[in-house]
Amino acid sequence: xxxxxxxxxxxxxxxxxxxxxxxxxxxxxxxxxxxxxxxxxxxxxxxxxxxxxxxxxxxxxxxxxxxxxxxxxxxxxxxxxxxxxxxxxxxxxxxxxxxxxxxxxxxxxxxxxxxxxxxxxxxxxxxxxxxxxxxxxxxxxxxxx
Length: 145
Description:
With 145 residues, this protein is of the alpha/beta class. The chain contains three helices and eleven strands; from the N terminus they run βββαββββββααββ. The strands form four sheets. A four-stranded mixed beta sheet has the order 1-4-8-9, with helices on one face. A three-stranded mixed beta sheet has the order 3-2-7. The longest helix is centred in the last third of the chain and has 12 residues, at 102-113.
């Protein structure tokens, strides 16, 4: 089991730890995607809101770790299990844990904060995100100032 943090997570369980809420680079993954892909269970633990911004997005700003490698999101408002982990859903469905679909957690966040405006970006690519197989999974683009 690996327990990791996130700057953002989206409805497909893709995780961002590369850029902040304004699209600026905050660092490398530090092995985030490697540990998530090799763990039998990978859990993201984070508050539902960071300041005034929801943790959950329709789509993350930057994909650092692919959602296929994330099994659960734990927040103070509920726990979302990746629908692809039917084994976990089956084991936990009769538990007293506050299980919620990830889109329900997003709706809770939006009721608290409203829907954030998207970050405008230029088309200029300034970097690429590769997974452990050297497949490019996302690109970094300049933020419009």
